[in-house]
Automatic annotation (TrEMBL):
CDD domains: PDI_a_family. GO terms for cellular component: endoplasmic reticulum. The lineage of its organism: Eukaryota, Metamonada, Preaxostyla, Oxymonadida, Streblomastigidae. Keywords: Signal. This is Thioredoxin domain-containing protein. Residues 26-96 form the Thioredoxin domain. Belongs to the protein disulfide isomerase family. Residues 1-19 form the signal peptide. InterPro entries: Thioredoxin-like_sf, Thioredoxin_domain.
């Protein structure tokens, strides 16, 4: 119990030192763990520096988006502070301020919509009708098929087509 408490204090101190908002929902990657953690699941990763006004403006909305998606086991939102983790940022070709592959609006809703449309799996297997009723992918289009078995030849072809 004591070890967990000390670790949480250390993490909180790190966030306070960074001067940017923090959240349990945003994963913090470093040079030491980036390569191992980024491949664990589809991840939108924000590369930032503390002094960047663009980053400071985006971070609260990014955190809200991460908190909206925290219960989705298929996607994660992460961040890498580039001043302290220079090697990772250079390795992924972050060369300067305002370089982004995300070109949508900087609001929570826009980030969540972009993630759902670009990062979530291309297909989702729904096994019971209640799951289908509760399914909200945030996408404009959906193809829904009904198959008697996960071993269905047609389903296998479709899954193979979506796994580009």
């Amino acid at each position: 119990m004591f070890i967990i408490y000390v670790s949480l204090l250390a993490i909180a101190a790190q966030y306070v030192a960074e001067g940017l908002p923090c959240s349990y929902a945003v994963l913090n990657f470093t040079d030491a763990d980036f390569k191992d953690r980024i491949v664990q699941m589809p991840t939108l990763c924000l590369f930032y520096v503390n002094w960047c006004s663009y980053c400071k403006a985006l971070m609260p909305q990014y955190i809200k988006a991460a908190e909206s998606l925290v219960n989705d086991p298929t996607v994660a939102l992460a961040r890498v502070e580039c001043y302290s983790n220079y090697n990772t940022c250079v390795a992924v070709c972050v060369r300067g301020q305002n370089q982004t592959a995300y070109n949508s609006a900087q609001s929570e809703d826009a980030i969540v919509k972009w993630v759902k449309g670009n990062i979530l799996p291309t297909y989702i297997l729904v096994k019971i009708e209640v799951e289908l009723e509760n399914l909200n992918t945030g996408r404009k289009f959906a193809l829904i098929g009904r198959f008697t078995s996960e071993q269905s030849p047609v389903l296998k072809v479709l899954k193979g087509s979506f796994d580009l």
